[in-house]
Amino acid sequence: MNLKIQAPDVVAMFGEFFGSDISLDDLEGRTLAAIPKKLLTEESRLQTVKWFDYRRLHPMQAAYLCAHAYREAYRNVIRQCYDERKAPYVKGIREDDFMDNREHKALWRLRQYIDGHGMPYDFFLRHAMQWWVDRGFDRPPRLGHIMTNSEALLDTLNAWHNECDSSIRYCKDAIYCASNFYGHPDQLAYEIWLLDMIGRRGVPKFALCSSLYVYDALRIEAAIGRFGDDAVSEAQRIAEEGTIAPVRVSQN
Q1: pTM, rounded to two decimals
Q2: In this predicted model, what pLDDT tens digit does every residue of 50-77 receive, in sequence order?
Q3: 139 Cβ neighbours under 8 A, 6+ residues apart
Q4: Are 131 and 152 in contact (CB under 8 A)?
Q5: In this structure, is residue 2 part of a structural domain?
Q6: Same domain flag for 224 and 126
Q7: Which of 166, 198, 229 is the last residue in one of the domains?
């Protein structure tokens, strides 16, 4: 498999969503036709800070994924607080194609904000929605409302930091598997991030074991360079004994 040139399988990574099957040329055309140049200039900066699984997506495809995550979070609030029977039929964004919605630029800005803080879309939107629910708002926030509430944004950012302290979210894109490593800057950045996440554990040997031997997420030489031979040997022993239960892996 030549991951250097093969496009990511977004359906395998995220499931089907509106926009997952749109060609690259069509995505580019839609972007240039509808998104202001001022917003597009941000994309090059965001490319190196967004959540790793989104770095090989076209920005428009990432926006469709963000719209999908917004709809899912919106439905979850309806299911949790109002009427579980109605939840499957609620869209949050009326049109299937968010680009047909008058708030499409608000969605684009929201996606850029999330990318700028390196958060996964589903995590951010679920926590942002929950912030509104916990404070007694009578309906889920619209796209434009989320970005105007600084307290909600700060609370959600803190929730992500806490999540990183308590669990590890492994990438879905196969390019980040250690067995597919070829030195791409994004692979190196993910490796550094993952080493930092492992280092945050009070007892890192279990997370080191999972990263090396369960998820194929970390090269053994990188692990030895950061934690030493003894730590890697201990992680290998844990893997051989099958005692890796203490590791918490984020599924958010």
Answers
A1: 0.89
A2: 999 999 999 999 999 999 999 999 888 8
A3: none
A4: yes
A5: no
A6: no
A7: 166
